[in-house]
Design goal:
The chain is mainly alpha-helical and 111 residues long. The protein has six helices and no strands.
Length: 111
């Protein structure tokens, strides 16, 4: 089996990319781990833990640009990931539905 050729330029590019995206990767990883442990602690199955943890990590990656939008430092990425992992996707969806019901009129309103 051939060994991977030594290409310093490739490793430099990979390390530069990792250093630029470290806050995002750290936040998503923390969110994944927090959700995984929360589901296992709550008595969930492996499948539930993996799926919830994956959803939390993806949600964290999607919410990460909001830090820049609101002018917050990227150092808060760990808090964002930990918070999303601790709360969970189901609870965040419930909060979003409750907020939308409060702010938006229902379908039958005004008829």
């Amino acid at each position: 089996m051939p060994n991977m050729p030594d290409k310093p330029d490739t490793w430099a590019i990979v390390l530069a990319w990792l250093s630029q995206h470290a806050p995002l990767l750290y936040a998503a990883g923390l969110s994944f781990l927090m959700a995984l442990l929360r589901i296992i602690y709550g008595g969930g199955t492996r499948r539930q833990a993996i799926l919830e943890a994956s959803l939390c990590a993806l949600f964290t990656a999607g919410a990460f640009p909001l830090l820049k939008f609101f002018g917050l430092p990227q150092d808060l990425a760990a808090a964002l990931g930990g918070g999303i992992g601790f709360i969970g996707v189901k609870k965040i969806a419930e909060l979003a539905d409750r907020y939308a019901d409060f702010k938006l009129p229902g379908r039958g309103a005004g008829q």
